[in-house]
Amino acid sequence: MSAIETLLTSTMIQALGWALVHFIWQGAAIAALYALAKVLLRKRAANIRYAAACSALGLMLAAPVISLFEMSRSPAGAHVFVEASPAGAQAEPMIAGAPQRASGSPASTQSTSLKQWASERLALYLPWLLALWFAGVLFFSLRFAGGLVVAHRLRRRETGPALEQWQGKIRDLAERLGVSRHVRLCESLVVEVPTVIGWLRPVILLPASAVTGLSAAQIEALIAHELAHVRRYDYLINLLQTAVETLLFYHPAVWWVSAEIREEREHCCDDLAVAACGNVLLYARALAELEQLRIAPPRLAVAASGGSLLRRIQRLIGRPARAHRFESGVTGAVAVATILFLLAGAHALLLSKSQKAEASGPVATTPAAQSGPSVGKTPAGEGADQEPAQRAKGAPPQAEPEYDSEAEEPDAGQPIATEAEPISGDGQSGGSGGPQDFTGSMRDIGYANLSVDELTALDVHNITPAFAAEANSLLNMKLSVSQLVAFKVHGVTTGLIEKLNAEGLSTLTPEQLVAFRVHGVSPQFVSELKTLGYDNLPAETLTAFRVHGVSADYIRAIKELGYDRVSAKDLTAFRVHGVSPAFIQAIRGHLREDLSEAQLIAFRVHGVSEGFIKELGSLGYSDLSADQLTSARIHGVTPKFIEAMRSFGYRPTFDQLLQMKFNAVTPAFVELVRGRGFSDVTIDQLIELRRMNLIPGSRNK
Length: 701
Fold this sequence. Notes:
The chain is mostly helical. The chain contains 32 helices and 7 strands.
């Protein structure tokens, strides 16, 4: 016996397999109880519904663990454990406590036979089911790990500390919400919605686009929502929740209950955010505005855009959302009904196969056989006496007919019959000789020796020889069967190819055509771009336009602001970094110069906002150029730093501010210098002292 066989037939592994099988009905039962509890708790607080959903998911995790413990402790229960047997020999299942088939009523005999057959078959297939489960857990574990890496990478990728005014706001909100842990607030150029990452040292990422797109009160309300996540340890709970999804991925009820937890979690945080900001309508408007900036955050992050946004807004403003509640209930009912339907179908299939196995039993047990020729018959009473001897000699028992799964399989040389008629050369049902007509028509256009899978794919997707020939002619190449299937799945028609050819896109590859359909690059879109002066664009640029939202209306709005010759690359960069017409208008009202495309992008990348320009202007730095403003953000020349230096009596010029930041002349360093008795030091002298490191103990200041 090999090591793998020993592992697969071990008591613990067998118990694990049966625990996973039994969880199919256990999970459905728990989901049904939660669905009932959800109906009873629909008018209660969101915290109560959230606790009920978490309890249901916890029971789903506990059910297979308890089953595993019980089965591993008493392996001789009513479950089958198949002993390993040599190659080619039939595995003999051991059933503890099974009643004798010769006794009892016919109904009990049939039920016992059905259970025995089902147990034997499941035991034989259990190693394969376990292998599939291990593969699924591995896949979702890798997905889990990848999500963690992406989520924590956001903390360092193009992020920086938020402005001091927001740092003060988050301290006030944290105190108001009872958050005792230190929470960092950072601005990010990557995320598009406020997001919480981490639970030991939580970080709230505030999107740079939200600073300019939302009012200060709306941003404060959204920060309160994220602080509510921190207070409730939602990031940690989300990690545990994802772990349960990974282990029990095969059960639809687990995903439904998990989705309910995420929905109720957002409701709980909405309630806390409204209590903190005190204005439900303001918070609802903030959510609505957030939807326009929304891009899905990493699954392991906790963002303000989670859950059904429309349902959350309707719940906040008190408008009934019956349709959505009905939809949620139907989703749960469908998940439970699906499991019950599968169980009923499996039971019917097992019953049918068990009846077939009973019908194919020994000839000597039927009345017709008893009245027929006596050749090969066993006299009455001899079968039972001979059975022990047969078992001793290694012969299989005759009283237990085994269902032969290969008896119903077609011969190797016979064609496989299907219910649907194949498609003939003209695209209609083939009728007599249909398969040959279709295969011959495909062979005539260059598709010879197609496999059964390829013929099935062509049939399922209704791909006719005429379509294949026309597509090949338009593209001047022979498409593979997988490419033809991709065309049908994504709606790449010959008419679309002709229209794109008319727009000058005659050299598109099949992959580019599919990408056009996926992202919505239509002939009309290409024609609109031509009228705006963007013709002969490569396929990758057209796709990037659609992916990042560079529409004809957006280009017109940019042109109206005087940017007539923006390159396609800069247009894409505009949309990626959030250079909107509103942003351009707001910025140019505070500057005397016209900004170039590169300067606009640099403003968004480094966080030069209208509010930042106003704050510097209020401190006397109102005539700064675009490059100076960008340098100020890059090197950390903030209003807080300027005010700190003014508290020491210094009025530095902008160049002096940059030199002070270059040489790390901090407020702490100034205090140290003054503590050494140098009270009349100028700014230039401070810079020189710092550069020469002439003040003892100033290295870490």
